[in-house]
Write a structure and sequence with these properties.
Blueprint (H helix, E strand, L loop, with lengths): L17 H10 L1 H20 L2 E2 L26 E9 L2 E8 L5 E8 L4 E10 L7 E7 L2 E9 L5 E9 L5 E10 L14 E8 L4 E8 L4 E8 L3 E11 L1
Antiparallel strand pairs: 1-13, 2-3, 2-13, 3-4, 4-5, 5-6, 6-7, 7-8, 8-9, 9-10, 10-11, 11-12, 12-13
Length: 239
């Protein structure tokens, strides 16, 4: 008025850039949120219909294995596993089930990536005269691995090849130091089985240990050369 400029504040809540700017801000957030929401919903659904069972020996990606690498072992039919892990600066959630003998299927969600589907099939089970042999994939990575118990009690060797997350060569050794003690139903908590683990995923060596309780819990943790902490906590379920 009268040649003067009147300043009017912008409406409260309006963001710079208008609708197009807000759409760009939301574009990157939705896919990641949906991946995590799907993983959590699936885990809760499985837990709601599950009972206690051995958790198995899970690698950080969720499949049966050591610290970093998968092995030729698979969970028994009807078993499943819910797990949360850490791989350096990333966190992971994974779900694995065994709908048929020798088969594991599931998925793993990283905190900085999408859900990666996983599948493992045991071509041959380990026997007194031959190693176990399994093939599998996780997202765009795949592998083939042999597992064999050595002459020393509690000592097993794993050797394989892979591409992507693992390989070109992967190897590992596990040494069982103590087995799970079977106690009476009214006895106190039993001591967990303890194993030492060393594995190589094709890029770095990891050293750690695994504790396995008969109630269904498994915890594994170790240090990966140049990468930091690697490990997970898993709970076994049965359908």
């Amino acid at each position: 008025m009268n040649g003067e400029t009147t300043w009017m504040p912008a409406p409260v809540g309006r963001r710079r850039g208008g609708p197009a700017g807000r759409a760009r801000e939301r574009k990157g957030a939705f896919p990641r949120f949906r991946c995590w929401r799907a993983a959590v919903v699936l885990a809760v659904a499985l837990a709601a219909v599950a009972a206690k069972a051995p958790a198995g020996q899970a690698a950080v990606m969720g499949t049966t294995g050591l610290l970093q690498i998968p092995t030729a072992d698979v969970s028994p039919p009807g078993a499943g596993r819910l797990a949360a892990g850490v791989d350096g600066s990333e966190f992971l959630l994974s779900v694995m089930v065994s709908p048929l003998p020798g088969l594991e299927v599931g998925g793993a969600a990283r905190s900085r990536g999408a859900v990666a589907p996983q599948l493992k099939y045991a071509v041959a089970a380990e026997s007194a005269g031959a190693p176990g042999f399994a093939v599998g994939l996780a997202g765009d990575s795949y592998y083939a691995v042999l597992s064999r118990r050595l002459s020393s009690p509690g000592l097993r060797l794993h050797l394989g090849v892979g591409a992507g997350r693992w390989g070109p060569v992967l190897a590992g050794v596990e040494a069982r130091l103590r087995s799970v003690a079977v106690t009476a139903a009214d006895a106190g908590p039993s001591a967990p089985a303890v194993s030492l683990l060393v594995d190589f995923d094709g890029r770095a060596v990891a050293l750690g240990a695994r504790l396995q309780w008969p109630a269904g819990w498994t915890a594994a943790a170790g240090v990966r050369a140049g990468h930091g902490l690697v490990g997970q906590v898993a709970y076994g379920i049965h359908f």
